[in-house]
Structure formats: C-alpha cells, structure tokens
Amino acid sequence: MPHTQVSDIQRDRAKQLRRTMTRAETLLWRHLKADRLAGLNFRRQAPIGSYIADFIAHSCKLIVEVDGESHDFEERIRHDERRDAWLKSRGYRVLRFTNDDVLKDLEGVALSIAEAAEQATPLSLTLPRKGGGNPATSASLTSDVDGAEKL
User: Which of 14, 95, 121, 141 stands 20 to 30 A from 130 (CA)?
Assistant: First the structure.
C-alpha cells in the first residue's frame, strides 16, 4: 500500500501516544501485536490522514479504537462520527470498544475483532499450479516437435 506523507506534527503525536497508551490499549496491543490475532499485522497509534488510529490492520482495512470516558461527551461523539465517516469513505471499517470492554472482556473483544477482520478480508483468487489451467481449454492445445503450441 502506498504511503501518504505524514507531517512531523502527526508523527510526533503518534509517537507520544504510543508511549502513553492507556492500560486497556496496552492490554489489547499484547493480543494484536506480532500477528497473534488471525495472522493480521496491526500497527498501533498510526497516522491516517489528519487522524491517528489506535490500531489499524491495512490488509483488511480495519481500525480498532479503544475509547475512554472522554468519548461520552456530545462534542466528542460528533467528532468521532465525522472521523468514522471520513475513514469509511476511504474503505476502512471502524470498531469501537470502551476501556471497560477491553479490561473486563478482553477475549470477547479479541473475538469481535477477529470476526470483523474475517468479514473484511477480501477473498483471494487461487491461481492454478504450473501446468494446471482450465482442463476444457488445455485439452484443445497440443505441442508439436519444436514445443510450440498448436490449436
């Protein structure tokens, strides 16, 4: 995935957020890091546009947010809605959990994330092995002595 330019201010803010993660974010990060959850590669406190996502898996376009009490206020809720709409317009799905959700039911949160990632992961097309191909079309091809294919 091509990287977009990140301002020095955004980069510094993301670094600061990584150093000062909440207890709930730290606990969830232990489950997400090192491809432990469904083999996904999550990044923490990652800049995206003018926002910083708590956790993001670019491969399945999934963002996980862990919200504290500050997200209970009307102004913050409206900000989160605008942010989520912007992220959704870029193809990302946002899951939100409270600190309490993570601290009291970490396994349930991890299961929810794994299920969302599974739904979001695009189906991969498997290509035939070398020499495989479509039996209907390969039967009509024959090789001559020079190895060239003829119909």
Answer: 121
DSSP string covering 83-126: HHHHHHHTT-EEEEEEHHHHHH-HHHHHHHHHHHHHHHSPPPPP
Structure tokens at 7: 């301002």
C-alpha–C-alpha distance, residues 108 and 3, integer Å = 32
DSSP class of 34: G
Return the structure tokens found at 140: 């009509």
Token pair belonging to 103: 């601290």
Instruction: Write out pLDDT tens, residues 34-79.
Output: 667 778 889 999 999 889 999 999 889 999 999 887 656 778 889 8
Angle at 83 between CA 81 and CA 87, to 5 degrees: 115
Is the C-alpha dihedral spanning 29, 35, 39, 40 positive or negative? positive
Q: Are 17 and 41 in contact (CB under 8 A)?
A: no
What pLDDT is attached to residue 88?
93
Measure the CA–CA gap between 126 and 16, rounded to whole angstroms.
Answer: 42
The whole-angstrom distance between residue 63's C-alpha and the CA centroid of its chain comes to: 6
